[in-house]
Amino acid sequence: MSKLQPEPPGPAAVYGARARAGGRWRRALSPTGNLGDAVFRGVLFGCALLVILIVGAMFWEIGANARLSLERFGFSFLTGRSWDPIQDEFGALPFIYGTLVSSVLALVLAVPVSLGIAIYLVEQSPRRLSRPLTFLVELLAAIPSVVYGLWGIFVLAPFLREYVGPPLQKWLGWLPLFQGTVTGIGLLTGGVILAIMVTPIITAVVRDVLAAVPVSQREAALALGATKWETTRIVLANGAPGIAGAIILGLGRAIGETMAVTMVIGNRPEISLSLFDPSYTIASVIANEFTEATGDLYLSALVELGLVLFLVTFVVNGAARLLVWSVTRGTSGVARA
Amino acid sequence: MTTAESKFTKAAGRGGARRRAVNAVTSALTALCAFAGVAVLVLILGYIAWRGVSSLSWQFLIDTPKPVGEGGGIGNAILGTLILLALASAIGLPVGIAAGVYLSEFGRGWFAGVVRFVSDTLTGVPSIVTGVFIYTLIVLPMKQFSALAGGIALAVIMIPIVTRTTEEMLRLVPASLREGALALGAPQWRVTTGVVLPAAASGIATGAMLAVARVSGETAPLLFTAFGSRFFSYHLDQPVASLTVQIFNYAVSPYDEWHAQAWAATLVLMTLILVVNVAVRFMTRKRF
Amino acid sequence: MSSDSTLTKQAAGACGRDDVADVYDDGHLRVEHDNYYVACRGEVLKFPRTEFLLLSRLARSVSRTVRAEELWACAWRGGKPYNSESLHVHIYRLRSKLAPYGVHIETMVNVGYRLVLAARGRRESAGECGAGPAFVNTNLGRDSDRCNTLRASSNFSALSPTDRRMTPLTRSAKMRASTALLLTCAVALASACSGQPAGGAVGPGGEVRLQGAGATFPNPLYQKWLSEYGKLRPQVRIDYQSIGSGGGIKQIKEQTVDFGASDAPMKDEDLKSAPGELLHIPTVLGAVVITYNLQGVAQPLRFSPETIADIFLGKIKRWDDERIKADNAGVNLPAADITVVHRSDGSGTSAVFTDYLSKVSAEWKERVGAGTSPNWPVGLGGKGNEGVTGQVKQTPNTVGYVELAYAVQNKLPVALIKNASGNFVEPSLDAVTAAAAESLPTTPEDLRVSITNAGGAGAYPISSYTYILADKEQKDATKGKALVDFLWWGIHEGERFAKDLEYAPLPPDIVRRAEAKINSITSGGQPLRQ
């Protein structure tokens, strides 16, 4: 199927090809040897650099503030399971676990749905329906997370407790994932809330990615006798890198989300396999305890959690890239999400 | 081409029924997803409206907050949110779009990889960490909470979202467009600003709107930067109220009256986003 | 001296001076127009040139309004176009320097300004200041000695009375040269000047802004206070943001706010690391109540302290446990597991609750301890009072603790708790005030005290103060005065708003102790409240 698409040269390659034709000096200035281009490029480079600087400064700031805790606990901070500010004992493992599981759960739920919505909006829905639906979905992104949280407590948690938990336990109760008592507050609810929150982000970006795939591709596939779904798969393959980017944006939101998750996840720093048990995420504990924390070591430990979150995001992003790369390897686009 | 062609023709001959069935099932599934997404949205919106609509009134939109039992409104918070969003957009959008253009048009080699990776990491930073970062960077040296600090905190959250969406959208602009423009002798900056960016305008607008929507719902980064205020404030160096902080303060209070106001304020916030969204869409609607 | 005068006259130009003598002296304020000399209550005051010229013009027509344009023409000679902003800034500075001496500059909106002497009655206390010109020189000698030490580092000689023989031209040149220095030293000068007896309150027409931040728990009450106080004193603009007690403590230490607020008193090490001495001023009291969700149980449950501790320790696991039954004869307790709900965010509510449990249970003290974010042995964490309320409301067979107001507003059942005297007490505002009154003998001088598990028959055992934190030494006298007045109003008139919002007012004895705290607030060593 991949052979349907011509190998598109990346934009950078286009300019690069032109640059190779220019002289060495002019090339040093800018690939195209134009003064305006040099300035333009410089400005863009500055902005890209700014992004790095922001993160660098943040990293530095966080590192400096976390020094006390780093020195005291060292590596054991990552493996410790106890979080007790009164005794000055700090271990991050339960939070790391909770963050990973809730985010993965959110993506597992949200990605298929988001893709489905996006495909429907771009490929299937009548035009007059597609526009308002897009608005509606993007509106989801604007709801303050505290509102999601309250909605989670008052609507979602009881719903899951009454109508989702028991059947899950009945049919899949033999899995360690679905054991224990169903209180409605726990990892599962946290994951579902996160899924609802990241869905608009993923949907919106994927929708635009799909919409940007040239119509000619669809026409070509259809002309060859492909069904609508087969055409969609071609379109999807073409947009794969963009879709991966969308998923990573969603993942970022899921990992960094605080208010909504903390209201429904149960906030217990414990590692339990069951999705019905309460858990805790790194972002939640920072948001929960930072404003009331007094004592230098305590504050420093909270800041170090921020550092750990950085690392978790690094690792997860890296893993996601690998995954995307291995999936899209056979197809045309180079995975660069 | 030939393999694909033969596959399709072959399939049309033998597995036609199966393919049509798959097609029908997937179509139904995607429609179902869309329906489910919209259903959840309608549920949440309905819930917000149900809880909040009773408090909505003209007075509510223009008044300043009052103690519990005396009504009051969110006029200053609406103004504050608009100021903060304008500030954040003024800082975050140009930087984000420029960084995205850089990544897409020049982004090769290790530097671009680092920028991409770092901006992805930035999207996962909890907003309260961003808030505390800006607090130490700007508020402490100024010894003053300010709208400016709040705007910058929100901008920092916006930048990675805008960068990544911009990059993705620009990459989908066909290379032939660039080649065509370059072939006509246009310098690269003209090609990018005059041809590539307009072609991707609608997609970039989506990214921008997502970013604006995302930050407009943020409370944590404003708590220690823009702070909040009971009064109307137009000064960038003064604390300024915002809808989300107001919503948060009211939502965690014990009083039903304030709860209802929090829901009503949420409704207002979403209407605000809707209006901005429609306006931006209208301005960047596809011309190609 | 006389030749000086004529010279100055020429340089200064005629500024409505024809009808007035060259020295204004009402016994309180003395302005020598030609000498750039101002004294008040025997104190030599120094002003930058523009401010002096403004004051000089205003002093020529005391109690009469001078048009803004005329003031401008006097102070900014050379036909600079009129700029109300610049004028206002200088008037503002002048005003804040003069306010402590009871000399006010009133704004006549859209017209101009006028000088008002409010503190005439202090003439006697002003001592030598009231004396005639004959004594001026002796006065000056003493004053300049003192002022020279103040001035030593700031190169203010251009304005010093000892340099009065300087020709006006050089003087003005020198002044211009030192304008930058003047600006940087203005703050130091202002604070040095305000170190003198503070007579006046806030300058009329001048708006004073105060910013406070901290505890979430008293926020509804403080909003009410600010609104009511704003009606009384519209020129004082106070704002309060609820960012959490920890945030409040942090902000007052960083000096980003004028006052902080905290539910729990600050710890010793926090107080030590603060830049100045901080005072705890109690404002109201709150109670933490035990609430639960049990279907079919109508009458309120009763708990002994040990039972509560064991439930939250996870040792009592079921509602039909013998020990719960023992306190609740005749109540049909369900045969169900107890689900404990606690706060997940760091919170003063948790601090008070765990402080109580640590007092009544040795095991709790040993295993968990007291703090804003303890390591809970069992249970679900809810975010905020609202989160705990929601979870208890939504989930059957739960037990949790929230602030009284949340239980009342949400109509949650609340448990009676056995206090130190052995009585089961229902949480009520009077029972909370009683707990504070009973704890009076053990209340230390700085009012940082825990009143949980208080003795006394009617005292509710899980109660606490909430405090406003203020610097003992206020940098800015005007702001300090406004703050002191507000606090004074709060613990007196403000208390009557407490009960409607489910806060317990302070007992009278504590109000008296708080008054003493407020009275001890100073600026430049002088008490702000008189």
Annotation keywords:
heterotrimer; A: 337 residues; mainly alpha; 15 helices; globular; disordered N terminus; B: 288 residues
Description:
The complex is a heterotrimer of chains A (337), B (288) and C (530). Chain A has 15 helices and 2 strands. Chain A has helices spanning 11-21, 24-29, 35-65, 67-73, 76-79, 93-124, 127-142, 145-172, 187-212, 215-223, 228-238, 240-256, 259-264, 282-290, 296-328, and strands at residues 83-84, 89-90. In chain A, helix 6 (93-124) packs parallel to helix 9 and helix 6 crosses helix 12 (240-256). Chain B has helices at 2-13, 16-52, 58-62, 75-106, 109-123, 127-142, 147-171, 175-183, 188-199, 201-216, 220-223, 243-251, 256-283. In chain B, helix 4 (75-106) packs parallel to helix 7 and helix 8 packs antiparallel against helix 9. Residues 1-6 of chain B have low confidence and may be disordered. Chain C is built from 19 helices and 20 strands. Classes of the chains: A mainly alpha (337), B mainly alpha (288), C alpha/beta (530). Chains in contact: A-B, A-C, B-C. At the A-B interface, helix 1, helix 3, helix 6, helix 7 and helix 8 of A face helix 1, helix 2, helix 4, helix 5 and helix 6 of B.
**Poorly predicted runs of 5 or more residues of chain B:** 1-6
Most extensive chain-chain interface: A-B, 120 and 121 residues
End-to-end Cα distance of chain B, whole Å, is 28 Å
Query: What percent strand of chain A?
Result: under 5%
Cα(first) to Cα(last) distance of chain A is: 22 Å
Task: Please outline the helices and strands.
The complex is a heterotrimer of chains A (337), B (288) and C (530).
Chain A: H1 11-21, H2 24-29, H3 35-65, H4 67-73, H5 76-79, E1 83-84, E2 89-90, H6 93-124, H7 127-142, H8 145-172, H9 187-212, H10 215-223, H11 228-238, H12 240-256, H13 259-264, H14 282-290, H15 296-328
Antiparallel strand pairs in A: 1-2
Helix pairs in contact in A: 3-15, 4-15, 6-9, 6-12, 7-9, 9-12, 10-11, 12-15, 14-15
Chain B: H1 2-13, H2 16-52, H3 58-62, H4 75-106, H5 109-123, H6 127-142, H7 147-171, H8 175-183, H9 188-199, H10 201-216, H11 220-223, H12 243-251, H13 256-283
Chain C: H1 2-12, E1 23-25, E2 29-32, E3 37-40, E4 43-45, H2 49-60, E5 66-67, H3 68-75, H4 84-98, E6 103-108, E7 112-117, H5 136-151, H6 168-177, H7 179-193, E8 208-214, H8 219-232, E9 236-242, H9 245-254, E10 259-262, H10 268-273, E11 278-293, E12 302-303, H11 305-313, H12 322-327, E13 339-343, H13 348-360, H14 362-367, E14 380-382, H15 384-394, E15 398-403, H16 404-409, E16 416-418, E17 424-425, H17 429-438, E18 463-471, H18 477-491, H19 508-519, E19 522-523, E20 526-527
Parallel strand pairs in C: 8-9, 8-10, 12-16, 13-14, 13-15
Antiparallel strand pairs in C: 1-2, 2-3, 3-4, 5-7, 6-7, 10-18, 11-15, 11-18, 16-17, 19-20
Helix pairs in contact in C: 2-3, 2-4, 18-19
